[in-house]
C-alpha cells in the first residue's frame, strides 16, 4: 500500500514505545487483501497480531476506492480477502485484552447504552463508556447516578 516503513521498522518503534512509555497502548489497522498482498505478507500481519496482541485492532478487507492507483490493479478474490480478515479476527479473538487495568480505578466517560443489547428495555441495558486512554468499558446501569455528576464509585466495569 505504498507504506514507507517495513514490518521490522514498525516492530522497532512499537517495542521502543512499549518498553519506555508506561501503560502504552499500541493500536493499529490491518487491511486484508490489498492487490499486491502475497501469502507471506498476510502471515507477517498474523505474526504481528500474535506478537503485540493489540488491544485495539481495526480489521478490514481492502476495497478499491475509485480514482486510486490500486483500484486499477488486479484485485484479489473476495474469498481470499474474507479468509484473511477471518484469520486476523480469529487471532484477535484468541487473546484477552486490557488485563493490565484489572484492579485499577479509572475515570470513565459514559457515552450511552451498549447498542448490542438494543432490544432490552433501558433499565436492563449496560452503559458504555471510555477511559482517558480510550479503553471501552461496559457498566451495569445504576439509575441513581445517571444524569448527575455523582461518582459511581460502586460501579464495577468490564473493559472490552
Unreliable runs, pLDDT <50, ≥5 residues? none
Rounded to an integer in angstroms, the radius of gyration calculated over CA atoms is 20 Å
Number of helices: 4
- Classify the helix fraction into a percent range: 25-40%
Could you say which overall geometry the principal axes of the C-alpha atoms support?
A: globular
Question: What structural class is derived from the secondary structure elements?
Answer: alpha+beta
Mean pLDDT: 84
In the sheet with the most strands, the strands line up as 3-4-5-6
| Sequence of secondary-structure elements | HEHEHHEEEE
Give the termini distance in whole angstroms.
30 Å
**Biggest β-sheet: count, sense, barrel?**
4 strands, antiparallel
Quaternary assembly: single chain
What attributes characterize this protein structure?
160 residues; alpha+beta; four-stranded antiparallel sheet; two-stranded parallel sheet; 30% helix
Describe what this molecule looks like in 3D.
By secondary structure, the protein is α+β, with helices and mostly antiparallel strands. 30% of the residues lie in helices and 19% in strands. The strands form two sheets. The protein has a four-stranded antiparallel beta sheet, with no helix packed on it. The protein has a two-stranded parallel ribbon with strand order 1-2.
Amino acid at each position: 500500500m505504498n507504506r514507507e516503513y517495513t514490518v521490522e521498522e514498525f516492530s522497532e518503534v512499537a517495542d521502543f514505545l512499549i518498553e519506555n512509555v508506561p501503560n502504552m497502548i499500541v493500536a493499529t489497522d490491518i487491511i486484508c487483501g490489498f492487490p499486491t498482498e502475497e501469502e507471506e505478507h498476510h502471515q507477517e500481519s498474523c505474526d504481528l497480531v500474535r506478537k503485540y496482541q493489540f488491544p485495539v485492532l481495526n480489521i478490514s478487507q481492502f476495497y478499491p476506492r475509485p480514482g486510486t492507483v490500486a483500484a486499477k490493479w488486479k484485485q484479489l478474490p473476495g474469498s481470499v480477502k474474507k479468509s484473511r480478515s477471518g484469520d486476523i479476527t480469529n487471532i484477535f479473538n484468541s487473546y484477552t485484552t486490557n488485563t493490565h487495568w484489572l484492579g485499577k480505578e479509572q475515570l470513565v466517560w459514559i457515552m450511552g447504552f451498549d447498542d448490542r443489547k438494543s432490544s432490552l428495555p433501558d433499565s436492563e441495558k449496560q452503559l458504555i463508556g471510555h477511559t482517558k486512554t480510550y479503553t471501552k468499558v461496559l457498566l451495569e446501569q445504576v439509575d441513581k447516578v445517571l444524569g448527575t455528576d455523582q461518582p459511581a464509585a460502586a460501579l464495577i466495569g468490564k473493559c472490552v
